[in-house]
Every structure is written in C-alpha cells, then in structure tokens.
Write a structure and sequence with these properties.
By secondary structure, the chain is α+β, with helices and mostly antiparallel strands. The chain is built from 24 helices and 22 strands. The strands form three sheets. A six-stranded mixed barrel has the order 3-4-9-6-8-7. Strands 14-15-20-17-19-18 form a six-stranded mixed barrel. It has a four-stranded antiparallel sheet with strand order 13-21-12-22. The longest helix has 39 residues. The two termini are 40 Å apart.
C-alpha cells in the first residue's frame, strides 16, 4: 500500500497542472453543492424542534375560488367550533402574530410577539428554561413568556427575570417564564409570548382571527381531521374550505420549490465537473499508455493497473471533496441567509453543514470517482502491450471517441443550465416589470403603532390625524397618508362583502386608508372621490372599492352611490369611489378585489405612514420621527423602507433573483468547463496527429482543407451536445415551470441565446487547434521537433 502511495505521488508530481485544475474544479462545485444541500437538508428534511413533530399540523381555510392558495387565518368563532368538533382526533390551539412596543428599558423598541391560547406551548412540547408556561387562568391576563434571544440580548440573561415587570404596549406585564434557546416557532418567530389578550367570549364577538395548530391523537390523521373541520367550515364560512397540512410541510411550503430547483442546479454543476474529470482521466491515460504498457510487460497484472488508476482518481476527488467541504463550512451561513431571506420563519433557522450532508457528498463523490476512473482504467488494463509499444503516438480510436463523448455531455449540460438561466432571467424581468397598481418610485413607508393602554379609539384617530397634519406642515400638503397595510407587505386575508345582507358574497381584501392615500400611492381614481376628513365616525359608513370588486358585485352597473354589505362589520356602507386594482400578495399572483374603509371610521392601532416627497429620505424620516416624538415620546418609528425595496423583496421576485444568480454561476462554470474540454480534445487530437497532418501537407494537401477538417470535427461534437441538451432542456423547462410564472415551454429566444453562447465558446475552443494544424511545418513535424 505504501508503495502504491509513493507511486501515486510521483504520478501527480509529473503532471501537477492537470491535477490542480481537477482539484480546484471539484472543490468549487462540491463546495457550492454542499452549501445548497445543507440548506435543503435543514429546511426540508430536519423536523421542527418539537415533541413528536410528525403529529403536528396546521389548520386553516382556503377560498373555494382558489383552493390551491396558502391556508389563511380563521375567525376565533370558527376556531372554537373546530376545537370542540376535533376532540376525538386532535387537540387544537391558536396563535396570533402581532407587534408590541417595549418601553422603560432604554429607547423604545418594537418587538415581535405571539398571542396564544394557554395550552399552545404545551401542545408543541416546549418546556421553559426558566419559570412556567401559561395556565388556563392566564387568558387575557398581563403575563408574558420571553424568547431566549430577547432575554439574553435586551435583559442581559437576568437569572432572576421570573416575576420581573416589563412594559409592553403601554401595559405592565409579569414575566412568568423564559423559553429555551432551541425553541423556534418558524411560522411566527417571536421575542415575547402572551396569552390571548381577549377572553374567549370577547374574541368570538369581535371577529378576532387566529392561526390554528393541532396535535393529532394516536388514532387521528390529517385527512380525518380535515374532514371534521370542513363540516364546521361549511356552516361558518360557506365560501371556504378547511385545509390541514403537516406543520413541517407548512413551514417549508414557500421555500420547497426554490430549494428543489437549486438542488437540481447543484447536481448538474457537480455532474459536469465529474464529466470534465472523467475526460481528464482519459487524457492522462492516453499520455501514460506507454508507461502502463511497460509496467504490464514487467509483470504488473491488469488488476494492479486498474487499481492504480482508481487510486489516482480517488486521491484527486478526496482532496477536492475536502476542499469543497471547507469552502461550504465558510459559505453556508451566507448562502442560507440569501436563499431563505424571504421565507418568514424559515429565514431564522440556523443552517449548518451537518455530518449527514458531508457523508452523503463524500460518498457520492467517491462513487463518482470510481465511475469516472472505471472506463479509462479498464481500457488501460486491457491494452495489448506489443501493439502499444510498436504503435506511434496516435491513441486508439475508442479512446478518442470516449473522450469526445464526454465533451458532448459537457456541452449538453452547459446548454441545459444556460436554458435554465434564460427562462429564470426572463421570468424575473417579466415579474419586475409588472404594474403593481401603484407607483413605488420616491415612496417611503414608516410604521407607527399606539398601545391599547392609554389610547381609546377616539384618541387613536386623533393621534394619526395630528400626525398627518404635522408632517404635511413640514413636507407639504398631499405628501403623507395613513394606511393599515401597503401592497406586497402584509397579509391578504379577505373579508366577505355583498350587495345586501344574505345576498351572494364576494371575498375582498380589507384595507383601512386615510385621506390622500390614493393620491400619495398614485393609485388611479377611476370614478367618484377619495376619502375626506369629513368621513369620520359621525358620518355614515363609506367605502372605496377596487375596479374588480365593483365589476364582480355590480357588473356593468355604476357602483357609485350603491350600498355594500360588510360581513365583518355587520353593516352596510355607501360606495363613494372606485380605484384601480393593486397586487397584495405577490406580483405573479392575480389581483384580488379590495374594499377600503376610512381609518377615521375603522381605526387601526398599528398603521403605516406613506410619504411621497422630493426631499432626501433622511429628512423625511427625521420629520416623521420628530412629529411622532412630539405627540408621544414613547412610540418608536420602525420598519422604515422604500416602496421600491418592498417591491424588490416581495414574494416571487427574491426567489427568482436567487435562482437566476445561482444558475448563472453554475452555467458560467459549465460553459468554461465545456470550452476547456472541447479545447483539450482538439488540441490533444492535433498534437497526436501532427505527423499525419505534416505528411498530408508535404504531399500537397491544402492547409485550408486541414483547417476545415478540424473545424468540422469540433462542430460535430458541439452540434451533438446541443442536440442532447435540447432534449434534456424540455424536461428542465417543465421542472422550472413548477415555480409559477416561469414559462414551462421553450421558445425561440430560450434556445437561440444559449446556442449563440455555446457556438461562440466552441469557436474559441476549436479555432486555435485548427489554425495550429493548418500551420504545421512538415519538416519540423517529421523530424519530431
């Protein structure tokens, strides 16, 4: 074994350039692939950190008009009915995500919070690190459980924190527990946890909406639970149906398609690296055929020859794998953050390169090394020694055909990756050019929330009215508006509306907007008027509806002046205006009907201040913060973003950016490797055929005919690779088409652009060898110079 190792080192030292090139190529591709596989493993294969996570499910509702949409929250009344009906097969608890302002500990700061039914944490199997979980008597009480990060960061890991008072949302809360560092509820990560602020009866009456999580009993299943819940939903929400999904699947629902495509791209990149590696081994075998023949003549068996080739391949792949794993350990945190940034709680998951991923990559790389070395090893072991020793430098035809086949495979995979980039890039361009229904340029969004403690609804209206007046005095009239949520930045949970109580209803996204909102957002006013300061609590209920909602309710009839039934408010409202539609959830989803109510008639404690001004953003932010500080110094201004940034980070856009950039890197690597492979084959062929070419030229062959013959040989390999890649691209386009708005079919542009790139790369690879062949000096070549 030691002798084999020493001989292996001598061989690698004899041709260090090719060995280094192989190791670097494998390290880069395996490193990138390992990082992506680590993300895929942690998100799709590692279960949530709860007791018996397989029994946990997420229950929600989807519209009968869009059954494939993500499950949405349900009214507390529906949850209460579900809870009672599901007792035989599951336990159900509820959670509501919110935000709270922390005061009294440094500067005011905004915290993410989860309000839960008392048994929620126990349902998940979360045992607190300090203190206790919620008890049944805690419902609606000012008690709080802290997340580990908040406890350590803001409170300095105070060991005596249980029993301490902290002020959240203007109200003092008693800390009763601290969750362990391992606990993360990825659907809604929270700094603090509270029992639902409303007693059950008040929650039912107010239409409070919650997200429902359940734990199946031993005799229960997701299908049986879904059937039970759907019986209730048919009575409480006729236009919806119940959906029950395993919690692990629901957590990774948005990330799964993107990660699968990324993993596919990584596999293709690794495949082309190993194809290139196999071609390298064939070249090395051709160059060493006389050496191996001599070893055979001196008594080496075929098994020993084959073992030597396999050991060489394994050594190179082992070094490349080690380099790739080290690279992955360094890059995986950044890759995970980039890939998961848009996927809610999944983005909070700490992704690491686990030993399972390293073992899988190492095993796959070892198998790949064996497969790549097997064919050249068998060829080397079966050579006829006398023929090799008698024959000139020209290699056997089967060896050349095999190497050319590997180059064809490289071109085919490169073509598939380039087609993928073209499809994803065009999808991204198409998506970012979609009209969202408003003008994001020069628009700034800032969030402000007032606490329930100290602010009744009249005071909430007064606060936001004063804030709007103050900012307008600084920045100019019509520069600011108030809204509870802006497009592409929040939930799109619909409400039911109709033309009269009991009439057929339509689902519409509810929004509360203030005067000047449509003007500031530049949402076109198609008919009627916008909200005015007079549309306050003393005025009759009034709404503005989107164009699509008006058409669905009234058809060709003009909606202005008609009434509309608001099921959530239990009242009729007058339609005073019609505005253009906007996209709420994602640019690649169909627009949803929208009903706007006045913030002065339906006030919200948490609102977004939208400002359009020619002044620098820093001046706008300072003006809003100063006005908020003058009205209430304990309120922070948070989540300051431009509307363009909101648009750029909306669902779908970021996914396609990640995929496009990743596939672009893989495609660039594939084109480079394919070009190198094609150049290597042509250069090696010309070098091995130099005496033959020189003899042809000496006998009168036209150099241009020599040039054409070499070019035809390279063109044949390139064309074969394009043909194979074209067939494979049909399947690839369908796989990428699963992402939604990505076209699932190939068109002229999707094919011609990759073909053009590979033709240019192929020409750069073939022309130098062809010109060298055409310029061969017969005298020098025949003398062996």
């Amino acid at each position: 074994m030691l002798r084999d190792g020493i001989h292996l080192l001598r061989i690698l030292r004899r041709a260090p350039a090719s060995a280094i090139a192989a190791v670097l190529t494998l390290s880069l591709t395996l490193g990138a692939g390992t990082s992506i596989f680590a993300v895929v493993y942690d998100v799709l294969l590692v279960p949530p950190p709860f007791t018996n996570p397989a029994a946990l499910v997420l229950a929600g509702e989807t519209s009968t008009d869009a059954p494939s949409a993500a499950p949405r929250t349900v009214g507390y009344a529906t949850f209460a009915a579900w809870r009672e009906r599901s007792q035989p097969v599951a336990l159900l608890e509820a959670v509501d995500s919110t935000n709270l302002t922390l005061t009294g500990i440094g500067a005011p700061q905004r915290l993410s919070a989860n309000d839960v039914t008392p048994g929620f944490l126990e349902l998940l199997g979360a045992a607190p690190a300090l203190g206790r979980t919620f008890a049944s008597g805690d419902a609606g009480q000012p008690v709080v459980i802290l997340g580990d990060a908040f406890w350590r960061g803001t409170l300095g890991a105070d060991p005596d924190v249980v029993g301490r008072q902290i002020r959240l949302g203007g109200q003092s809360h008693t800390v009763v527990g601290v969750l362990p560092a391992t606990f993360v509820f990825e659907l809604s990560p929270g700094d603090v946890w509270r029992p639902l602020p409303l007693p059950p009866l008040e929650a039912v009456r107010s239409g409070y909406r919650v997200r429902v999580v359940g734990r199946l009993r031993a005799n229960g299943s997701a299908a049986s639970l879904g059937a039970l819940l759907n019986d209730v939903t048919r009575d409480t929400s006729p236009r919806a149906r119940a959906v029950v999904t395993p919690l692990a699947k629901a957590t990774a629902a948005d990330a799964a398609p993107m990660l699968r495509v990324l993993a596919g791209g990584a596999v293709l990149a690794i495949l082309i690296a190993f194809v290139n590696f196999a071609g390298l081994l064939i070249v090395r075998g051709i160059d060493r055929r006389r050496e191996l023949a001599v070893r055979s003549a001196l008594g080496a068996t075929r098994f020993q020859i084959l073992k030597q080739v396999l050991l060489e391949a394994q050594a190179l792949v082992t070094i490349g794998t080690a380099g790739g794993v080290l690279l992955a350990l360094w890059t995986t945190p950044a890759v995970a953050r980039l890939a998961l940034e848009q996927f809610g709680g999944v983005a909070h998951r700490a992704v690491a390169v686990r030993w399972q991923v390293i073992a899988a990559v190492a095993a796959a790389a070892s198998i790949g090394a064996c497969l790549c070395a097997l064919v050249p090893g068998l060829i080397a072991a079966r050579r006829n020694v006398p023929d090799v020793l008698r024959r000139a430098a020209t290699p056997a035809p089967r060896e050349l055909h095999l190497r050319r086949a590997f180059v064809v495979a490289e071109v085919a995979v490169a073509f598939v990756l380039l087609v993928s980039v073209t499809l994803l890039g065009r999808s991204l361009v198409r998506l970012v050019t979609v009209n969202p229904g408003f003008d994001p340029h020069g628009l700034l969004a800032l969030q402000v929330s007032v606490p329930a403690a100290g602010y009744n609804m009249e005071q909430v209206v007064s606060f936001y009215s004063a804030l709007q007046r103050g900012v307008e005095e600084r920045l100019g009239p019509g520069s600011i508006a108030i809204v509870n949520e802006i497009p592409l930045d929040g939930s799109a949970s619909p409400t039911l509306v109709g033309i009269a109580p009991g009439a057929a209803t339509v689902e519409a996204v509810p929004r509360e907007a203030g005067p000047a909102y449509f003007g500031v957002m530049r949402i076109p006013l198609l008919a009627g008027r916008s909200f005015a300061p007079a549309d306050d609590a003393s005025a009759p209920p009034r709404v503005v509806v989107s164009e699509s909602l008006g058409k669905r309710l009234f058809g060709s009839t003009r909606p202005i002046g008609h009434g509309i039934w608001l099921a959530s408010a239990g009242q009729m409202a007058d339609i005073i205006g019609i505005v253009g539609d906007v996209t709420h959830r994602a640019l690649d989803e169909a627009v949803l009907p929208t009903v706007y109510r006045s913030v002065m008639q339906s006030p919200s404690r948490s609102n977004i201040v939208v400002v359009r001004s020619a002044r620098p953003e820093a001046d706008v932010i300072a003006a809003v913060r100063e006005e908020v500080g003058q009205l209430d110094g304990s309120l922070p201004v948070y989540r300051v973003r431009s509307a363009e940034d909101v648009l750029a980070h909306s669902p779908g856009v970021l996914t396609r950016r990640v995929l496009t950039s990743t596939f672009s890197g893989f495609a660039a690597l594939a084109v480079v490797l394919g070009t190198i492979g094609l150049f290597g084959v042509m250069a090696h062929d010309v070098a091995s055929r130099r005496p033959e070419i020189a003899l042809r030229i000496a006998l009168g062959a036209d150099p241009m005919r020599i040039l054409g013959a070499i070019l035809r040989q390279g063109t044949a390999m390139l064309a074969s690779g394009l043909a194979v890649g074209g067939v494979l691209s049909i399947w690839t386009a369908r796989a990428i088409g699963s992402l939604g708005s990505v076209p699932a079919h190939l068109d002229l542009l999707s094919l011609t652009l990759p073909i053009g790139i590979l033709v240019i790369a192929g020409a750069a690879a073939v022309l130098p060898a062809a010109r060298r062949a055409a310029r061969t000096d017969p005298l020098d070549a025949l003398r062996g110079e």
